[in-house]
Amino acid sequence: GQNIDQPTEMTATEGAIVQINCTYQTSGFNGLFWYQQHAGEAPTFLSYNVLDGLEEKGRFSSFLSRSKGYSYLLLKELQMKDSASYLCAVIDSNYQLIWGAGTKLIIKP
Amino acid sequence: ETGVTQTPRHLVMGMTNKKSLKCEQHLGHNAMYWYKQSAKKPLELMFVYSLEERVENNSVPSRFSPECPNSSHLFLHLHTLQPEDSALYLCASSPSSGGVDTQYFGPGTRLTVL
Lengths: 109, 114
Fold this sequence. Notes:
Chain A is mainly beta. Chain A is built from no helices and eleven strands.
C-alpha cells in the first residue's frame, strides 16, 4: 500500500527553528508538496520538490531525498502565525496525489 | 472574489435532509476536486472533474452526488447522510487534472450530521 508518515503534533518556541519530517512509501514518485493549513482555513501551497536537495523560500525551506523516501520542511525564526497544520503530499507514478495526515505545529511564546 | 470560494461555511443537517455544497473557482482552471477531511486523517479524494467531465470517483457512497455544470462551478449534493459523514469538505481546483499542477483549495464546509 501507499503511505505517508508525519508526526501528529509538534511544539516549538517563537523565534526558534523547527523541522517537520515526512517519509513516504509510494508506487513511484513524481514530486512532493508541502501545504500549510490554519485552523478553519484552506490549505495553501508552500513548496514543491521533485529533485533531491534543499529549496529555500524565505523563512521556509523544503528538503527532499528520493533515495530515502524522505522530506522535511524547515521553518526558521518562528512566528506565532506559523501555528498551523502542515500537510505533506506525494505524486505517485499514476499522478495521483497521496496525502499525509498532517502535522499540527504549536508555537509557544 | 478571487481564488476558490465555498458555501456554506458551516452546515448542520439531519440524516433525512437534502442539502448541497457549492464551490466556485475564479482562477480559470480546468480541473476541480472534492475532498473529505476528517480529524487526524489524510485528505480523502472523493471526485475529480476535468473540463466538466467526471474523471475520478473514489468509491464514494451514492448518498454523495457531484455536479459540475461548468468549469467554474462544482456542487456536492447530499442525501440521507450518516453521522460518520461529519467532516470538513474541501473543494480545490488546478490548471489541469493529474500531472503535477498545484491545487488551490477553498476554505471548506464544516458539515455536521445529526
